[in-house]
């Protein structure tokens, strides 16, 4: 069923392995058949209802699947609230990738990861864990140091209860953060992340860029632009730059493929 449409493309809702996902079909798909997996924030906002990201993605002809996983943090930890038989990460890495292959005949490395907040940290973490499959990843306001929130009283935030279903304590969670999954010899060839200096998650992004720099790992980041802190004003302000980065990087990956 079509949820939303515009001159640049149309969204539809599909089921992948028993879970709902939103699919963007641009009016003029990229000639090299490129795709993006979008990972949502903890608010579970549906990308199909976001005209800013829709316009940026469709303008560049990027086909998109935006799966819905609830407050799973897209982790590789069991969470009955999401699925009894598969983790959210496994769902993305296997089921969503397979759906892209079957629907559009697009295979890695022509599939990029994009995420916001909760989804941003996951896009980076999955790219660090599977750089061969996801050599292109971009994150807006990534909630990297989520382990720190486990030290806060549950009453302070609705983020904590979800995390406590996944991790037994802050150290258990810290070991699963994107920064701890960076491999000094194997990394995604194209990575970009950005964070508003006023964002309460900013320190994690700053620590990540320091680690990448110290290891000599190529990356791009913007940790100075300010446009509203951790908010959709900032997410939308950075959308054109992020989507352009992903489109150009996927194009470079296409050129790497055997003729």
Please describe what this structure looks like:
With 259 residues, the protein is of the alpha/beta class. It has one domain: Alpha/Beta hydrolase fold, catalytic domain (Rossmann fold), CATH 3.40.50.1820. The chain has helices spanning 51-59, 88-104, 118-129, 159-166, 170-174, 202-215, 232-256, and strands at residues 2-6, 9-16, 19-26, 35-39, 63-67, 111-116, 136-140, 190-194, 220-222. Strand 8 (190-194), helix 6 and strand 9 form a beta-alpha-beta unit. The longest helix has 25 residues, at 232-256. The chain is globular. The mean pLDDT is 93.
Q: How many strand segments?
A: 9
The topology string of helices and strands comes to EEEEHEHEHEHHEHEH
Low-confidence stretches: none
| The first-level CATH class name | Alpha Beta
CATH-defined architecture: 3-Layer(aba) Sandwich
What is the mean predicted local confidence, pLDDT?
93
Helix content: 25-40%
Q: What is the fold-level CATH name, i.e. the topology?
A: Rossmann fold
Largest sheet: 9 strands, mixed
The N- to C-terminal Cα distance equals: 37 Å
Number of domains: 1
How big a fraction of the residues is strand? 15-25%
**Radius of gyration in whole Å, from Cα?**
17 Å
Principal-axis shape equals: globular
* CATH superfamily label: Alpha/Beta hydrolase fold, catalytic domain
The number of distinct helices, counting runs of at least 4 residues, comes to: 7
Helix/strand class: alpha/beta
- The main sheet orders its strands as 1-2-3-5-4-6-7-8-9
């Amino acid at each position: 069923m079509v949820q939303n449409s515009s001159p640049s493309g149309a969204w539809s809702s599909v089921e992948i392995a028993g879970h709902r996902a939103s699919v963007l079909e641009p009016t003029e798909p990229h000639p090299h058949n490129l795709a993006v997996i979008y990972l949502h924030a903890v608010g579970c906002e549906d990308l199909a209802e976001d005209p800013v990201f829709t316009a940026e993605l469709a303008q560049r002809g990027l086909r998109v699947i935006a799966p819905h996983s609830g407050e799973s943090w897209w982790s590789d930890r069991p969470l009955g609230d999401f699925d009894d038989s598969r983790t959210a990460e496994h769902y993305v890495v296997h089921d969503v990738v397979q759906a892209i292959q079957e629907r559009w005949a697009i295979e890695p490395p022509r599939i990029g990861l994009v995420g916001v907040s909760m989804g941003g940290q996951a896009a980076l973490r999955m790219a660090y864990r599977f750089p061969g499959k996801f050599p292109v990843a971009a994150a807006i306001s990534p909630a990297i140091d989520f382990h720190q929130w486990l030290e806060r009283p549950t009453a302070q935030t609705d983020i904590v209860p979800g995390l406590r279903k996944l991790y037994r304590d802050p150290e258990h969670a810290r070991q699963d953060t994107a920064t701890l999954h960076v491999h000094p010899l194997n990394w995604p060839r194209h990575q970009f992340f950005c964070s508003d200096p006023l964002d309460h998650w900013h320190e994690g992004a700053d620590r990540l860029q320091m680690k990448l720099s110290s290891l000599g790992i190529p990356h791009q980041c913007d940790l100075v632009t300010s446009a509203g802190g951790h908010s959709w004003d900032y997410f939308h302000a950075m959308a054109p730059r992020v989507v352009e980065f992903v489109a150009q990087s996927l194009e470079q990956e296409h050129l790497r493929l055997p003729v």
